[in-house]
Specification:
The complex is a heterodimer. By secondary structure, chain A is mainly alpha-helical. Chain A has 16 helices and four strands. The mean pLDDT of chain A is about 90. Helices cover about 40% and strands about 15% of the residues of chain B. In chain B, strands 1, 2, 3, 4, 8, 9, 10, 11 and 13 form a nine-stranded mixed β-sheet that branches. Classes of the chains: A mainly alpha, B alpha/beta. Strand 4 of chain A pairs antiparallel with strand 2 of chain B.
């Protein structure tokens, strides 16, 4: 670099350089801002598509049926085994007496979901007094009707090219004019497991699966990760072996997650014989995946505790282990918890390793324990995204919204914990 | 001290939970693996079965046909699946693999047919293709005027066949791992290639060379591997009316207002044409049952009965509503009978 004229520091040369430096700074600031705006733009686009596709899934179409639970439908003791489908069919025929041909009747029956029969079954089993009474019941509509009500079917196409035929359309109009068809909040979506009928599909099964899986992951990876970090940071001798372990842990954090799935398949399923597709084996695999993250975060937070704390403790006669557990660990805990929550959030969104251990599966029953087969939230999203029925598109987006909500809550918890317990030196 | 105890308790709890289930190795639900093409049908049956019987709903993994056989043939015992779905028949090598692991009695059940459609957006015109056109448009190498093989020179459909529209060839289809891709190259490409005399000669000389020529799709961007997600292909077709997509019939069945199937060899891709066997691009779907598990895993017989009942796989059954093409009456009866008797397949020769 040239120093320019010695006697006047503010000469032309200097001003030029100064200007250049200011310009460089300005350019860098603009670039940074641009980068942030691009990132925000993508995020806004993602959120707006997911929300605009998914918000309609939280409402569901219901049809009101005027059902007479005639005694003759319940010939045997076991009320659950009565033919509820027939009750619904005869109710529909009663409501639309003009429908006579066999084909038209089939179309008529397709107005309501298969789930309607199960709804009636549950009603009667819970309250047998309903038999021989007349009840107004709201039953879920078929997914095609639901799509029609949500304006997702192009009725301008010729009749043969759409899933809603003219007759069905006119019936729906009749129902609508009588106030017998309506949109309600979709509680099914939050209270049931997976289903191949979009109107009956829910995320409770997957959410519980995710909960159990993360519970196992947390119970295993937190104590092991923190213990490993404390040992490495506070007790381990500073030699080649420790350096080797450190390099390996850092490498493990960058290993693609599917590899942990393969490892899990080989060890947990094939060698230990833990049943496939269960939260237990999923949690074990995700433990392997999150351990490095937790160890690294925990070590960083132990490192940030000033040595003066340790020296003071040792100075008044505390043993090494007392120093660590009474003084250093409480101060490092907020950082460790933050790292753990971020690791958990990562585990919550993971599907690749679960593919290997059979958690990408169709599971209707809601898991009741860690050894019941179950799916997890991101797997549910993947499975729905690949289903042919159009109504699953909105369910997919809605499930994404639920998953995002979980992630936001977990990350917010991490921030809050840090804010609450953080000690600045 | 508190922290120490907490950590210790946590670790202890985790270890107890982890070691508990290994002892009680039994399974009270049916485990099914296999083809992603059969998955949408098998899941409907499983759900129906779970809701109408006292048994638990079977667990169905979508692993692909090949992956399914690998798991299925792993052995006999609760840790191995009971049933595998397949969009093609079991191979001899797979049957041998099964036999090597002690699985000798396998019941084969054909469940119906699936059509493969070449579709485009409703906003464009429907086109009439022949299998030869499909081969010429999509093969990596085609015979030139002199009969010698050359890299596919065709850029537009019109160049392939003057009656087709003058738009660039752009086809979205499944990747090589997909069973739909296997069936498509076999049913459309291979039989299209047979229409060429020069290729017939190659076939006589060396079957392997012929398979290589007829099964290899273009890699110059005219054929685009769009992943396993067929919904995505449907969406892309809507936004690009010049593009065509290859996928299973059920996706056409669910979206008739936005996409249309092309005619292949003069036949439209409709339910009736596929069921009659007129539409050329159709293939059978199967599942395979491990007979040794019948009796030890509850519900297998009842699941088979549900699957092979007329209300499921019949012409008006609920599987037809989901886009499965039913077998002709006689064939249905035959398979229903062999399901009832649990008649095992012949051993591989």
């Amino acid at each position: 670099m040239q120093t320019g004229n010695q006697d006047t520091p503010f000469n032309k040369e200097f001003n030029k350089r100064l200007k250049r430096r200011y310009n460089a700074e300005r350019r860098f600031k603009r670039l940074g801002l641009l980068a942030i705006f691009i990132a925000l733009g993508f995020l806004a686009f993602l959120l707006s598509t997911v929300i605009s596709n998914g918000y309609s899934a939280f409402r569901q179409t219901f049809i009101q049926l005027d059902i007479f639970f005639e005694k003759s439908y319940f010939p045997n003791e076991d009320l659950a085994r009565a033919d509820y489908q027939t009750i619904i069919k005869s109710t529909l025929r009663e409501q639309f007496p003009e429908v006579t041909s066999r084909q038209d009747k089939q179309l008529l029956y397709s107005l309501v979901s298969n789930g309607a029969a199960f709804k009636l079954m549950n009603m009667v089993v819970k309250n047998p007094k309903l038999i021989n009474t007349r009840q107004l019941v709201w039953v879920p509509a078929n997914d095609d009707i639901d799509m029609l009500m949500k304006d997702k079917i192009d009725m301008s196409q010729p009749e043969s090219d759409r899933r809603i035929k003219d007759k069905v359309f006119s019936w729906v109009e009749t129902l609508a004019s009588n106030g017998r068809i309506t949109m309600k909040f979709n509680t099914t979506f939050f209270t049931s497991g997976d289903s191949r009928e979009p109107e009956l599909a829910g995320i409770l099964g997957a959410a519980k699966g995710s909960f159990y899986t993360l519970l196992i992951t947390l119970l295993l990876s937190f104590p092991i990760g923190v213990a490993a970090a404390i040992y490495l940071e506070e007790f381990a001798p500073d030699n080649r072996a420790s350096a080797f372990i450190e390099v390996n842990i850092n490498n493990l954090a960058a290993v693609p997650s599917i590899i942990f799935g393969l490892l899990g398949l080989a060890i947990f399923i094939n060698f230990w014989g833990i049943p496939r597709s269960t939260p237990l084996v999923g949690g074990l695999v995700l433990t392997l995946m999150t351990l490095p993250t937790i160890i690294i975060a925990s070590r960083a937070s132990l490192k940030s505790v000033p040595p003066s704390i340790r020296e003071a403790a040792l100075g008044i006669g505390a043993s090494k282990i007392q120093t660590v557990f009474h003084h250093v660990l409480p101060l490092a805990m907020p950082g460790m918890l933050t790292g753990t929550i971020i690791g958990m959030a990562q585990a919550l969104g993971e599907t690749a390793p679960l593919l290997m251990i059979g958690m990408v599966a169709f599971i209707v029953d809601i898991p009741g324990s860690i050894t019941d087969p179950s799916a997890v939230l991101p797997v549910q999203i993947y499975l729905w995204a690949d289903s042919p029925e159009r109504a699953f598109t909105e369910k997919t987006s809605a499930a994404i919204l639920v998953l995002l909500a979980f992630l936001v809550v977990m990350n917010a918890a991490a921030v809050l914990l840090r804010k609450k317990f953080e000690i600045k030196w | 001290m508190k922290h120490k105890r907490l950590l210790f308790a946590g670790a202890l709890a985790a270890v107890t939970i982890a070691s508990a289930p290994v002892h009680g190795a039994s399974r009270d639900y049916i485990a099914i693996v296999g083809s992603s093409t059969v998955y949408p049908f098998a899941t409907v049956v499983a759900e129906q079965f779970g809701k109408t019987t006292q048994f638990k709903t079977p667990k169905i993994e979508s692993t692909g046909s090949g992956g399914g056989f690998k798991l299925f043939c792993g052995g006999v015992g609760v840790e191995h699946p009971d049933i595998t779905n397949a969009s093609r028949a079991i191979k001899k090598s797979e049957q041998e693999q099964c036999a090597a692991n002690g699985i000798t009695d396998i019941v084969e059940v054909k469940i119906g047919y699936d059509g493969i459609v070449v579709a485009n957006a409703k906003t464009a015109d429907q086109i009439k293709l022949s299998r030869k056109d499909i081969y010429m448009a999509l093969a990596k190498e085609v015979p030139g005027a002199d009969g010698k093989l050359m890299a596919n020179p065709y850029k537009t459909w019109k160049e392939v066949n003057p009656s087709l529209p003058d738009v660039a060839i752009e086809v979205l289809g499944p990747p090589p791992t997909s069973g739909t891709r296997d069936a498509f190259v076999e049913l459309a490409m291979e039989s299209g290639a047979r229409k060429f005399e020069t290729l017939a000669e190659i076939r006589e000389k060396d079957e392997k060379d012929f398979v290589k020529v007829s099964h290899t799709l273009r890699e110059d961007g005219a054929y685009i591997e769009a992943g396993e997600n067929d919904n995505l292909i449907v969406q892309k077709l809507q936004s690009n009316p010049h593009a065509f997509g290859i996928f299973g019939f059920s996706f056409l069945d669910q979206n008739p207002d936005v996409i249309q199937g092309s005619m292949v060899d003069g036949e439209a891709a409709t339910f009736e044409n596929i069921a009659d066997g007129k539409y050329p691009l159709s293939r059978p779907l199967f599942f395979y049952v491990k007979k040794a598990h019948v009796g030890s895993i509850p519900g297998i017989i009842e699941y088979l009965a549900e699957f092979s009942s007329e209300k499921a796989w019949g012409t008006d059954g609920y599987l037809a509503d989901k886009g499965l093409i039913p077998m002709p009456d006689a064939e249905r009866k035959q398979y229903a009978q062999s399901v009832k008797e649990l008649k095992p397949m012949a051993a591989p020769k």
